[in-house]
Write a structure and sequence with these properties.
Blueprint lengths: L5 E7 L6 H11 L5 H13 L6 H4 L5 H6 L6 E6 L4 E6 L7 H10 L2 E7 L6 H12 L4 E7 L8 H17 L7 E5 L24 H6 L13 E10 L3 E7 L5 E2 L3 E5 L4 E9 L2 E3 L1 E2 L4 E7 L11 E4 L7 E10 L6 E2 L5 E4 L2 E14 L6 E4 L3 E2 L4 E8 L16 E6 L2 E13 L1
Parallel strand pairs: 1-3, 1-4, 4-5, 5-6
Antiparallel strand pairs: 2-3, 7-8, 7-15, 8-14, 9-13, 10-11, 10-15, 11-12, 11-14, 16-22, 16-24, 17-21, 18-19, 18-23, 19-20, 19-22, 23-24
Length: 422
């Protein structure tokens, strides 16, 4: 797999617009799922009285999802095109599954926004599009799907494309960063190859060609080292082994590193990935490592390791732009939910609501609003209740985005504009 550049791809869009079927179809047509598996899924689908769901079943693995015909959790699957090796993150369209959608989109490099040709842009099409923008996805492919349900009508395709283009422009996507494709995931139209017999009026790329035209993600190797810690193990004969993903910079054996917020430091002794010893680790590598002079008590999940010359920032307070996704009432200053940022989960207090913005234009709608409710976009000041490593989104995007959770739901998502260090 490593012979091709890797991309994380998320499929987003309103519930029932055909995301899972499209993903299943692509996996099947790129050989990631074999004929045999597909045949079994088809049998299972007709048994459950869901005769057109066999491709969707490729991603929807749990019994509950198959019976309900809905995507609940994030599923990860890999496939290859001529140029890339993709990991697909299939994001649920259902309202109550939006928290999984955030985890998905915040890991993705690009997104496919699926819109049903009959229904056009729906409330969640808007929400997902806005979220992908807030979470930093720069390139989109819009699949105007289920074209078979409108008899491959060019006029209807143009209407939906126009509607989608208006929406995407209004939230800041430029025309040249979006491609539109008329598709039918069920018929396989314009997915792995162009289908001029069905869409003679369309001369653009099919889905796999469009995926190969996505810009390669640059590895932020030139930045300072940042490794958010996922877990810490104690391994006999080695000692303390923290595990995490290198987000930026390069970690080398023999390098002096520091762990924040504790401030403990040491020298990298060994780095290991997939049970192989490495001399250095690059962005995107999930590694286990051992640091001379670092004990079990010095490092824990949610900490961030960096170069001792440029340690990770511990915030005294920070300013962020947030979008409120769902809240039963209203959010006022003093609200203290849990912030999920990289691997950390830390309670933080919104101390000041500074500005309410127009979600479509980003212009200031109201200064110092009294409260925020579902759908609002705002700039707020936040103070962590205990030491938290967080960075400005412009410098370290991977450590500058977060989701806010409370009462078991994702209340908001946001990005850090400025940090006042401790």
């Amino acid at each position: 797999m490593a012979d091709k550049p890797h991309m994380n791809l998320v499929f987003i869009g309103h519930v029932d617009h055909g995301k899972s079927t499209m993903v299943g179809r692509i996996l099947f047509e790129t050989g990631a799922i074999d004929d045999n598996t597909m045949r079994k899924l088809k049998e299972e689908a007709s048994k459950l009285g869901k005769a057109t769901f066999e491709y969707a079943f490729a991603m929807d693995r749990t019994k509950e999802e198959r019976a309900r015909g809905v995507t609940i959790d994030l599923a990860h699957k890999d496939f290859k095109t001529n140029k890339y090796y993709f990991t697909i993150i299939d994001a649920p369209g259902h309202r109550d599954f939006v928290k999984n959608m955030i985890t998905g989109a915040s890991q993705a490099d690009a997104a496919v926004l699926v819109i049903d040709a009959k229904d056009g842009v729906q409330p969640q099409t808007k929400e997902h599009a806005f979220l992908s923008r807030t979470l930093g996805i720069k390139e989109l492919i819009v699949a105007v799907n289920k074209m078979d349900s409108v008899n491959y009508d060019e006029k209807r395709y143009k209407e939906v494309q126009e509607e989608a283009s208006k929406l995407l422009k209004s939230i800041g996507y430029k025309d040249d960063s979006v491609r539109y494709i008329p598709t039918s995931a069920y018929d396989g139209a314009n997915l792995s190859k162009r289908t001029p017999d069905k869409t003679p009026w369309y001369s653009g790329e099919c889905m796999l060609e469009a995926l190969d035209l996505l810009k390669e993600v640059e590895k932020p190797t030139g930045k300072a080292l940042r490794v958010p810690i996922q877990d810490v193990y104690t391994i006999g004969g080695i000692g303390t082994v923290p595990v995490g993903r290198v987000e930026t910079g390069v970690m080398k054996v023999g390098e002096k590193v520091i762990v924040m917020p504790s401030g403990a430091s040491g020298e990298v002794k060994t780095i290991e990935m997939h049970h192989e010893q490495l001399k250095e680790a690059q962005p995107g590598d999930n590694i286990g490592f051992n640091v001379r002079g670092l004990g079990k008590g010095d490092i824990k999940r949610g900490d961030v390791l960096g170069d001792s010359g440029n340690p990770p920032t511990v915030a005294k307070e920070f300013t962020a732009q947030i979008i409120v996704l769902q809240h039963p009432s209203a959010i006022a200053a003093g609200y203290t939910p849990v912030f999920h940022c990289h691997t950390s989960q830390t309670a933080c207090t919104l101390t000041e609501l500074q500005k309410k913005l127009d979600p479509k234009t980003g212009e200031v709608k109201e200064e110092n609003p009294k409260f925020l409710k579902t759908g609002d976009v705002a700039i707020v000041k936040i103070i962590p209740t205990k030491p938290l490593c967080i960075e400005n989104v412009k410098e370290f995007p991977q450590l500058g985005r977060f989701a806010i959770r409370d009462m078991g739901v994702t209340v908001a998502a946001g990005m850090v504009l400025t940090v006042t260090p401790k």
